[in-house]
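In response to the reviewer comment on reproducibility (Comment 2.3), we provide here a single inverse folding case reported in full, input and output, so that an independent group could reproduce the run without further information from us. The structure tokens appear first.
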């Protein structure tokens, strides 16, 4: 009755929706999707929830890769104001579940297992119950290249490191910043991790998944550090602290030639009206054609008002996130590919289609590997120690052997 009165009072369609939503339930959502492409993607969920009569209280915490968002989340939980849903991924989901703070969303997940790649399905569960809903799969080992710049210097997308450095020299000679980069620890890690992958998927697995000391201290790892050291010489002077989307904007405009970044960068190109193959190239990073480093965004659901069970709004949100239509539209804006394996790829561009084909083949070959830089493997303590070692190396004149020794020591920190 009350709801009908409210709806009866409203004058426009949008007012009707917000009144109806308030009468139902408002979901508070903590996430770090604040760039142009990211905002467009998360708005799809907000709109879908509004259509179902749910309100949305937004806690967007700026900062690529979510370190600031995770700090804000801890503060909210400690003060007894846990959000209804929070963007959390990888092993961190388990950590929150271990503290008995999450709720089961099994009721919304009846068909998830059969439609999700097994390693990803497993991460969404704790104690045998689904506690998080996956959005999409981002590939990390990409190199984004401005096509106009590339044509101008008569280059082609590099498949090896020697080709990469030759192209970087051409860009430099043409007055273009060869590598657009933002000097923030997670962006440093993105480059470093991609160079690790270029030593082969097995090497990556042994080094960053198994943390095998012999691999971590091997001559190939010294080569990795030397390559990273050389890449660094192609940054511009203003790289320190730059946000990732500003580095992407350099490549969009053409003042920067290339960027190493996960495919949320494609969301920025798309948002700027740029076409793959015409305005920019999405190339698999040099030497990494048979590997696929992935990260999966997910929302974990928190207990609200002391209730151990999910609210109708939380269940509706989880169901929506994993619905075929949402998965498609979200990834179209976000630059990712759907996590659900039964979403048609026909509306996607060539970069996403390549990502999908490579996902399928690397799942079979063993080259589908969790990204360390993006929280898909290792505890936050170990990943943080490795990130400190890598960032220190990238921002000092340390030699490769010293960098490797620091890495090997960091990998032992649990
Ligand atoms: C997330 C992406 C996001 C990126 C930049 C990554 O950790 O998985 O969804 O676009 O950070 O903020």
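Designed residues, in position order:
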């Amino acid at each position: 009755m009350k709801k009908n009165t409210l709806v009866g009072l409203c004058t426009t369609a949008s007012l009707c929706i917000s009144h109806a939503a308030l009468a139902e339930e408002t979901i508070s959502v903590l996430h770090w999707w604040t760039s142009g492409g990211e905002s467009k993607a998360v708005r799809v969920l907000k709109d879908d929830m509004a259509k179902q009569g749910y309100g949305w209280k937004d806690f967007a915490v700026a900062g690529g890769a979510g370190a600031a968002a995770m700090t804000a989340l801890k503060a909210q939980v400690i003060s007894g104001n846990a959000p209804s849903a929070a963007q959390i991924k990888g092993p961190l989901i388990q950590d929150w579940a271990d503290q008995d703070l999450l709720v089961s969303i099994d009721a919304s997940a009846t068909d998830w297992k059969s439609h999700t790649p097994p390693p990803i399905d497993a991460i969404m569960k704790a104690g045998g119950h689904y506690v998080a809903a996956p959005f999409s799969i981002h590939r990390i080992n990409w190199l984004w290249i401005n096509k106009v710049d590339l044509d101008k210097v008569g280059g082609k997308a590099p498949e090896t490191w020697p080709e990469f450095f030759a192209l970087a020299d051409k860009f430099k000679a043409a007055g273009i910043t060869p590598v657009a980069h933002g000097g923030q620890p997670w962006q440093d890690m993105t480059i470093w991790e991609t160079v690790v992958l270029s030593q082969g998927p097995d090497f990556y697995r042994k080094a960053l998944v198994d943390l095998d000391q012999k691999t971590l201290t091997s001559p190939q790892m010294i080569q990795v550090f030397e390559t990273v050291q050389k890449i660094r010489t192609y940054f511009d002077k203003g790289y320190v602290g730059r946000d990732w989307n500003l580095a992407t904007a350099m490549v969009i405009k053409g003042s920067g030639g290339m960027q190493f970044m996960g495919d949320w960068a494609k969301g920025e190109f798309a948002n700027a009206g740029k076409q793959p193959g015409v305005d920019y190239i999405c190339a698999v990073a040099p030497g990494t054609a048979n590997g696929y480093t992935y990260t999966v965004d997910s929302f974990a659901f928190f207990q609200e008002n002391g209730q151990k069970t999910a609210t109708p709004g939380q269940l509706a949100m989880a169901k929506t996130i994993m619905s075929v239509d949402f998965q498609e539209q979200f990834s179209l804006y976000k630059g990712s590919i759907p996590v659900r394996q039964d979403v048609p790829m026909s509306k996607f561009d060539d970069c996403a289609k390549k990502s999908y084909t490579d996902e399928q083949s690397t799942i079979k070959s063993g080259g589908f590997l969790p990204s360390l830089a993006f929280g898909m493997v290792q505890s936050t303590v170990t990943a943080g120690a490795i990130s400190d070692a890598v960032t220190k190396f990238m921002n000092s004149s340390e030699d490769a052997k010293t960098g490797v020794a620091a890495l090997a020591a960091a990998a032992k920190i649990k």
